[in-house]
């Protein structure tokens, strides 16, 4: 969710009662009004602001002139996840942040315009891109059906390759499916856009774990793309984490989204961490019936890693923020009963450049709670890299060249597995970039 | 400010008829009935021209829809097309209503609009006598309606022929005891010719423009011209903001070519529009489309805005303003060739959109340089011919302006 100067959020009191999307549909008159504000800049900076290189200025102009099918085609030329990114992209950091209208009135709500274009396509029927004939016959494998792998696959399919995507989970989509609650991104949108990629000729095999990349090459795949993401949750090792009622954030979101019996959270939920996933856990807990949701974060508001719009949404829905507070231990016999916390103050900057939180001695206090969720972020699983035999960088991510080539010839990588965890649009951009490199590599071969 | 509609500065004398203010409702849908006109008078309109009367026995059968609009940008009715005919209410009904209006609103001007063909001397004269007998203050002869009526020899075909214009004017003037205004069509090569003909026939005033003949659009799904009446359409009359420049020119031309008082019509929606019409020669202005869009209540902003403007410019009357800009229209040949202008970009206001650069590259003289990194346009004065395109495409007010320059223009090869 982004700017939302026009597309309106549903009132917090209403939206916490269901799992439908927070953002309302964009009516055609508002889309027109917004699109006609576009200056159609020369060398449009919004395009450079988009990691996937979407020709923003052109698609907005198509909306302004009432040619909605061209608008979505332009977006999909660079991004097969148009509807997804319209909903979850922090566009202020990208295209919207570059919009020149910010210097006169206000920047265009590009995310909402993209959402409008994607929604119109769903209403009016999907037009698939033309499939190139070059390179036909050559097979490519993508490991991981997240945004990076699927974007890579879609781009390769467009270029005429036969692509198979292997996914260890039951459902494709990666973090889009398992890491984002449906009130932020309807699963229908994810499923629809993946179905479109499949229609382009991409095969997706789920519940198929790949451990050996070289074996894939032996099976006849001329090149491999590794887009396995960053799934290993960081875990705050305080006493009591083994108690019933302590959840890992991703498992919690997954269970709330897909389990037949939804997690029972009780009246109070305490969340450790203040990133986007923590915000998502807070919204999910409220929708599961929690009466009181508390986010505990050891630093201050300015240091919170979640995007502003996410924090605002969470705040509107009634989540409490206990900042400058760190959990010391989780209390309980068999089940979580309380969390003991300690107040913090900010000291000089640490290696991350943010002020280091320092405990205030004697400031301990206890919060009664029924559930604790650990939402401290995720990182690349070093074990996976070892299995693949790929060289890692200092942070434990896959080491690649700029074009995505790994330490193994013919094996490329991109997305969270390489950058350590960033936005969907950056993963999509990396997947497409790798597809280009794979195409080049296979043409030379 | 509630009395602005009767402000002393706005009082006008138009062919001897006194108006509280120069704003008249044109003969059109806002004057469909006497009851409506009286509500307009309550709102503050200076005068109103009734929907045009045709001789009794002439059928007036309207269609649906009879309107279609061309939206542009935020304006839902940048141009409006109508194919509505003259009044479909009886002559007798109207005569009664004219009497009622004058009885209840003696200080407001009621103008009877009449129409017949170029051969119907008797009908023209009868309508004239009946309308003035009912108490109307003026008569407007509708020689300008471009749709429907011309098929029967009425409306715009009359003021497309100077001979017909002249003899109709004479017929009406022969029996009229009140001032006669001739409403002219702009759908003619040279409106000066018909304006002079009307003057020769004895017209007291001229009203222009009637609607501009047009075809507003085509329904691309149904492949039908608009407005589509069950699949078919007919050419119509255009009004609204889009036709204002055509109307200004017509008013200016007849102001310079005749001695008649002028009622300016065509796209008046704001006090600025009204002031422009007055400055090119109109003494009163007629309004229709803007009222169709926003209602009678706009009379308040029209009057207040015009009063404020007049006070700002120290005008003591509308009469003082009439035609001041028209005098400054000259031959192209007479324009000052030594007046050298160049584009000037205010870098503090510039948002770096690059539109001035693109337009100068693709439609002018390549006199603007573009710094891709800084997103900054710079004018090369020796290449700039001062056409002004960049100042019009710039989305920011006052960012690109034209300034005087001593830098000589380098000849391009």
**CA-to-CA gap between the ends of chain A?**
43 Å
Structural class of chain B: alpha/beta
> Rg of chain A to the nearest angstrom?
22 Å
CATH architectural designation of the largest domain in chain B: Alpha-Beta Barrel
Task: Based on Cα principal axes, name the global outline of chain A.
Answer: globular
How many DSSP-defined strands of chain A?
A: 16
Helix content of chain B: 25-40%
* Beta strand % of chain B: 15-25%
Kindly provide the radius of gyration of chain B, computed on alpha-carbon positions and rounded to a whole number of angstroms: 24 Å
Structural features, described:
Chain A is α/β, with parallel strands linked by helices. Chain A has 3 domains: 12-124, Fumarate Reductase Iron-sulfur Protein, Chain B, domain 2; 139-231 and 379-444, FAD/NAD(P)-binding domain (3-Layer(bba) Sandwich), CATH 3.50.50; 235-376, 3-Layer(bba) Sandwich (FAD/NAD(P)-binding domain), CATH 3.50.50.60. In chain A, 36% of the residues lie in helices and 16% in strands. Chain A has 18 helices and 16 strands. Chain A has helices spanning 12-15, 28-35, 45-49, 56-64, 68-78, 82-88, 95-98, 110-124, 147-158, 175-178, 187-199, 213-218, 249-258, 276-287, 308-316, 382-388, 416-419, 424-444, and strands spanning 139-143, 162-166, 203-205, 223-226, 232-233, 246-248, 268-272, 292-296, 320-322, 325-331, 338-349, 355-359, 365-368, 371-374, 378-379, 411-413. In chain A, helix 5 packs across helix 8 (110-124) and helix 14 (276-287) packs parallel to helix 15 (308-316). Chain A starts with 11 loop residues before the first helix and ends with a helix. With 413 residues, chain B is an alpha/beta fold. Chain B folds into 2 domains: 4-328, TIM Barrel (Alpha-Beta Barrel), CATH 3.20.20.70; 336-404, Alpha-Beta Plaits (2-Layer Sandwich). In chain B, the strands form 6 sheets. Chain B has an 8-stranded parallel barrel, surrounded by 8 helices. In chain B, a hairpin with a 2-residue loop joins strand 1 and strand 2 (17-19). In chain B, helix 1 (34-43) runs parallel beside helix 2, helix 2 runs parallel beside helix 3 and helix 7 (271-279) crosses helix 9. Chain B starts with 11 loop residues before the first strand and ends in a 9-residue tail after the last strand. The relative contact order of chain B is 0.12. Chains A and B meet through loops of A and helix 11 of B.
